[in-house]
Predict the 3D structure of the following.
Amino acid sequence: MPPEVADQALLVDMLEFAREANLKAESVWKTSSRDGWIELTPEQRAAFRARIEGIDAKIMQDFPQVKEMLELVRRKANDLR
């Protein structure tokens, strides 16, 4: 198997693992947190996104070694929208 195919297969496995871990963590938080779970409205989500827009550029400026990871996260986030 060529390395790029193996890398893609690993990414798929990692994404599935992360999704399952996130669902489990969310479930534990909802059932165990004494502060409860807050679900944001679409308007609140949009306001939050607007507030953090551009933070990745600042992080990459301060920590150039994380540029590749942040770019990958942004691409994946855009794919999931």
Summary: Residues 4 and 62 are 30 Å apart (CA to CA). The two ends are 31 Å apart (CA to CA). DSSP finds four helices and no strands in the chain. Residues 3-32 form the longest helix (30 residues).
